[in-house]
User: What shape does this take?
Amino acid sequence: MRYVILGAGAVGCAIGGRLFEHGHDVVLVARGAHLTALASKGLELRDPERTVKLAVATASSPAEAGLREGDIAVLTTKTQHSETLLMQLASCAPPSTPVVCAQNGVENERLALRRFSNVQAMCVFMPSTYLEPGVVEVPVSPLTGLLDVGRYPVGVDDVSERVVADLNESSFDSIPDEKVMARKYLKLLSNLANAIEAACGTRPGDPAARELRRLAQDEGSLCLGAAGIEVADAALDAPRRAALGAMRAARGHDRFGGSSWQSLARRTGNIEADWLNGEIVLLGRLHQIATPVNELLRATANRMAQDGIAPGSIPAEDLLAQL
Assistant: This one.
């Protein structure tokens, strides 16, 4: 059995790299300069304690990876790129191929289930950063992250159990969870602040940013409640998160911002806000609940991505004033 990691950026390389390091068969599907570096030099995976070089197999597409019966596809791209990769995967993979959605947001599983019968949802709690082509940092150790898995929309099966076992052998803390989507909706509420960090920067203790976060999450909780969506108890994983310890940058460089901050910093031209803040906007419209905070954050993050505006360029006070 192989793990075929689709969209192997920061999260994908951390998951695939650790699985490979612990003896599992892995293929990293990437593109551009990152693919070139991975293929020619291997994956350099850094944590606060050590740096490892891993000669993981690579491919430029699912077709080149040559998926076969028994493989598990792990989707690790941001949601705005999922549709393209799933179309490519469906054109070359057996329809029985399990697809694991190791992504933020709650839309990817629905996209995958249109094409594949066995979809696994993975709730990812793993800070990671793409530093440069071929180089990824995970700022915690010895655990790499928390990765809980269950079948979508609900349940646990043999695939869930196998993936969990392999992850637990590979420096992750992983549990099978038949209601893993409740964990992903809890994570969604946290991810509503991604756009705030991207737009306003990473300065800790900013009272205006804290207020924006509170307002965005209050809207989110109201919409999820109106939709009857179960959300996990935030205290459920507090001991496990504490076991990860504090984030410590490898090699002494500064810790960068999260995934949306990184999208702006790398000038990718796109950002994930439509599937994070936009999920709350969608639920608000479906259930007739006003969501001005999340709509402002969604629109602001998209404008910054499209116009190439650097992260941290907009004071949180200015966004509050617009509200």
Notes: The CA atoms of residues 42 and 205 lie 39 Å apart.
